[in-house]
Write a structure and sequence with these properties.
single chain, alpha/beta, Rossmann fold, 2 domains, 10-stranded mixed sheet, 4-stranded antiparallel sheet, 22% strand
Amino acid sequence: MPVLVDIDAYEHHLFSRAPGANGGARPSQNDRVECLDIGLINNMPDSALMATERQLFDLLEAAAGKLVVRMHFYTMKTTPRSDWGRDYVSRYYRCTDDLLSGALDGIIVTGAEPKALRLPEEPYWDSLVQVMDWAGENTISSVYSCLAVHGAVLHMDGVERHKLPAKCIGVFAQTKACNHPLMHDIPGTFKTPHARWNEVQEEELAACGYSVLTRSAETGVDCFVKQQKKSLFVHFQGHPEYDTQSLLGEYRRDMGRFLRGESEVCPTIPKGYFDAEAEEIVTAYRQKAQSDRCPEFFAGFPADQLAKDLRNAWHPAAKRIYRNWLLYMASQRAGRSKPTAFNGRYRTRPGRAAA
C-alpha cells in the first residue's frame, strides 16, 4: 500500500521518487480510520535531512504490506541549523510545539550529532524532553534511534550513556535475545549498521526494567524496549534504516573533517562493510591521510571505487522489524480509541509490494 505524506508543498522530493509518480487524492474521512499516523521528528544535521526522510519513507513503504501509513514531519526549533536547514524545515516541517496538542499512533525520533559533554547541555534537550513526555501519553509506540535512545533512557530512567574509546562504526552481527512481537519472523542472527560515539549498557538497562531484544558480541545491546505509560518505547542504538551507502557517506564526512583540521581523530574504517578489495583501497587512503594530512587530499577520496560493490545485508531484517512495529500498533489500536487525526493535505506515490 502507499505511504501518504503530510506535506503541503508538492515539490518535496518524496513525491517524485518513483518513475511516473504524480501524487494522489486526499483521503476521505473513512480512509483516515484505516491509516496509521506516524510522526518523524528529524533531528539529523542539515546534510542528512533529506536522506533520513528518504530512508525512513522507503523502509515504512517496504514494511507496510496492506497497511496504509501516513507520515507527518516535525522539527525541534532548538536544533542548530544553517540558513539552508532553517529554510528547508520551515517549508516542509511542523514544529514539535504543534505536535504537543494532538496524538499520533507512533513516532520515530532520530539521533543528532553530539556536541555537548552531557545530553542535558545540548540546545534541544528541553524540547526533546517535551516530546518524550508527550509520547508516553499520546502514542501507541515510539521509536528512538542512536543519540535519541541515550536521551530517552536518561530522561525516563536516569540511565547514563558511556563514551566509547573510538567511534563504533560498521555493520555488525546481532543475535535475537528473546521472543517479542517485534521479533516475529526475525532470524536468530542478522546484521545492523552502527555509527556512534557512545553507548548504554545492558546491565544498567536491565536494572531499570528494559527488555533487550537484540545484542551483539562486538557492540553490546542494540534493540531494547520498555512500556512507558501508554506507549511502548522502542530503542535502536544502531541504524536499521540506513541505506547501502549511508556509512560510506558518514566515513567520507568524518575524513573530510580530519583533513581540514576540524577533528583531530582520523576516522575508523567501518567494520564488516567493505569487501576485501575496497578494504585495501580505503586502508591505503587512510594511511596516506595520516601521513600527509592536508585539505587538498580530500579531493581524491575514492568514493566511486568504494561504492561499486557495496551490499545492503541488513534491509530484510530491518523491513521485518518495522513491519512488526506497524502491526503491533495496528493491533493495539483496535482496542483503543483512534488518536486525534491531524488535518492537512496528503499526496502519495505508488507503493512497492511488501512481503
